[in-house]
Design goal:
With 389 residues, the protein is an alpha/beta fold. The chain folds into 2 domains: 2-182 and 369-388, Glycogen Phosphorylase B (Rossmann fold); 192-367, Glycogen Phosphorylase B (Rossmann fold), CATH 3.40.50. 48% of the residues lie in helices and 18% in strands. The chain has 16 helices and 15 strands. It has helices at 14-28, 45-50, 66-73, 76-92, 102-111, 136-147, 160-168, 192-202, 222-235, 248-261, 277-283, 299-306, 319-323, 335-346, 350-367, 370-388; strands at 2-7, 32-39, 54-60, 96-99, 119-124, 126-127, 154-157, 176-178, 208-213, 239-245, 268-272, 286-289, 294-295, 311-314, 328-330. The chain has a 7-stranded parallel beta sheet with strand order 3-2-1-4-5-7-8, sandwiched between helices. Strands 11-10-9-12-14-15 form a 6-stranded parallel beta sheet, with helices on both faces. Strands 6-13 form a two-stranded antiparallel ribbon. Helix 5 (102-111) crosses helix 6 and helix 8 (192-202) crosses helix 11 (277-283). The longest helix has 19 residues, at 370-388. The radius of gyration is 22 Å and the shape is globular. It starts with a strand and ends with a helix.
C-alpha cells in the first residue's frame, strides 16, 4: 500500500509528532510512505528522511522576499503549491492521500478530480476553534473545509470532540470516524535519573513542581494557569510552577507583568521545551492542561501520563477521555477550579500518589499507544482499498 501524507510543515508540534509516528509505524509494517510539505525547514525533516521516508517540498517560503510577498498578495503561491502537489502525486501514484490538517485538506479537495486512482482522506485535529483569535485567512480555511467536506472518501478525527464540533459547525458527518492519537510508550516512560537530573538543573529541592507545556497561543490558557498558581501558593508554599514552551524567553517577557502582579515571580521556572521532553515530564509532579479551546486530543496529556505524571485538565477536546479516572477534569477558564484540582492531588499521601502515577501510565499503555493508532489507520486504509477492488 502506498500512502502519501500532506501537511504544512514538520516543525516541532503535537500534530507533527503524530504524523511522524504514524508514517514510521506504517513504513515498519511494510507500506510505502511519503510526506509532502507545503513549507520546508521543519525540525523533524532530516530525522524522518534519515529513517527512509521520502520528503517532498511543495514550494512555499518563509521569507520577506518582495516577489514572494507579491505572490502571496494575489494568492498565486497557492497555485504554485497545487501544481507541485499534483505533479508529485501523478508521479507517485499513491493509493491514499492522507491530508493532515485544515490547509492540506483544502489542497486535497481541490485536486481530487485529478486523482481518480487515489483515495482522499482528511484529518481533523482540533475542536471548538475560536477563529476570532486568528488571522482572517484562517477563518476562510475553516469555512472552505466545511464546504468541501463531502469530497474526501473519509475524514479521520483524532477526537470525539473534534468530530462533534466539525459536524455541529456544518461539516458533512457521514464520512467522519475517530482514531485517537497514540503515544510512544517506549520513548515516554518514568525515569528517576532524568527526574533528578532536571530538577537539579532547575534548582528544585523538596518542592513539588506543577507544569504547563505549550506554545504561546490564546488557546493554551497560560493566564488561567498563573492565576491558579497564585491561589495554590496561598495554601501550599512548597510548590514551584514550570512554564515549558518552545519560546521560553518570549513567554517570560509576555507574562512577566502578570506573574509579578500575582506575587509569584520567584515561584515560576521558565523552561525551554525544545529539549528532551521525556526528562522534562519526569521532572514534574503534576501536569496541567489549562487550555480554553481548540484542543482535539492533546498529546501533552498522554505523554505526561506515560511518564507517570498525574494530570489536572480543563474540559477541552478529549482531555477528559484521556485521563479517565486517573486525573481531575475542571471547567475551562476557571482558575479556582484548576487550583482546587492541583491542591487535591497535592494532598494525597505518598502511597496514594505513587499508585496514581502507576495508573496514569497503565491507562496510556492499555488504550493509547502508537502501535494501536498505526493498526487502526492501517485497517481503515485497507478497507478503503478493499472497497476499490
Amino acid at each position: 500500500m502506498k500512502i502519501f501524507f500532506l501537511n504544512s510543515t514538520l516543525q516541532i508540534g503535537g500534530a507533527e509528532r503524530q504524523l511522524c509516528e504514524l508514517a514510521l509505524g506504517l513504513r515498519d509494517r511494510g507500506h510505502e510512505v511519503a510526506i509532502g510539505l507545503i513549507f520546508s525547514g521543519g525540525a523533524w525533516e532530516k530525522e524522518i528522511e534519515a529513517k527512509g521516508i521520502k520528503i517532498f517540498w511543495l514550494g512555499k517560503h518563509y521569507t520577506n522576499n518582495r516577489f514572494i510577498k507579491l505572490l502571496r498578495i494575489f494568492e498565486l503561491d497557492h497555485f504554485i503549491v497545487a501544481l507541485c502537489l499534483l505533479r508529485t502525486l501523478k508521479h507517485e501514484q499513491p493509493d491514499v492521500l492522507q491530508c493532515w490538517q485544515t490547509s492540506s485538506n483544502i489542497y486535497g479537495a481541490l485536486l481530487k478530480p485529478y486523482l481518480s486512482q487515489t483515495y482522499l482522506t482528511w484529518g481533523i485535529r482540533c475542536s471548538d476553534i475560536m477563529p476570532v483569535y486568528y488571522e482572517p485567512h484562517c477563518r476562510r480555511l475553516y469555512f472552505l473545509e466545511r464546504k468541501f467536506s463531502r469530497i474526501p472518501e473519509l475524514i479521520i478525527s483524532n477526537s470525539n470532540a473534534g468530530k462533534e464540533y466539525f459536524i455541529r459547525k456544518g461539516g458533512y458527518g457521514e464520512n467522519v470516524i475517530v482514531i485517537p492519537n497514540g503515544i510512544n510508550v517506549e520513548q515516554f516512560h518514568p525515569d528517576l535519573s532524568c527526574r533528578e537530573e532536571y530538577r537539579k538543573q532547575w534548582g528544585v529541592k523538596k518542592e513539588k513542581v506543577i507544569g504547563i507545556v505549550g506554545r504561546i497561543d490564546p488557546m493554551k490558557g497560560h493566564e488561567t494557569f498563573f492565576h491558579s498558581a497564585s491561589m495554590i501558593v496561598r495554601h501550599n508554599t512548597g510548590v514551584l510552577f514550570a512554564c515549558i514552551s518552545p519560546e521560553a524567553e518570549v513567554a517570560r517577557e509576555k507574562f512577566h507583568s502578570l506573574v509579578t502582579s500575582l506575587g509569584i515571580e520567584g515561584k515560576v521556572l521558565w523552561v525551554s521545551g525544545r529539549g528532551d521532553m521525556v526528562k522534562i515530564y519526569n521532572a514534574l509532579d503534576i501536569f496541567c492542561l489549562a487550555s480554553h479551546f481548540g484542543e482535539g486530543w492533546p498529546n501533552v496529556v498522554g505523554e505526561a501520563m506515560a511518564c507517570g505524571v498525574p494530570c489536572v485538565v480543563t474540559d477541552v477536546g478529549d482531555a477528559g477521555v484521556i485521563v479517565g479516572d486517573t486525573g481531575i477534569v475542571v471547567p475551562r477558564r476557571n482558575s479556582s477550579a484548576l487550583a482546587e484540582g492541583c491542591l487535591k492531588l497535592l494532598s494525597l499521601s505518598d502511597e496514594q500518589f505513587s499508585l496514581l502515577k502507576s495508573k496514569c501510565r497503565q491507562r496510556i499503555v492499555e488504550n493509547f499507544t502508537v502501535e494501536q493508532m498505526v493498526e487502526r489507520y492501517e485497517k481503515v486504509y485497507s478497507n478503503l482499498l478493499r472497497n476499490k477492488k
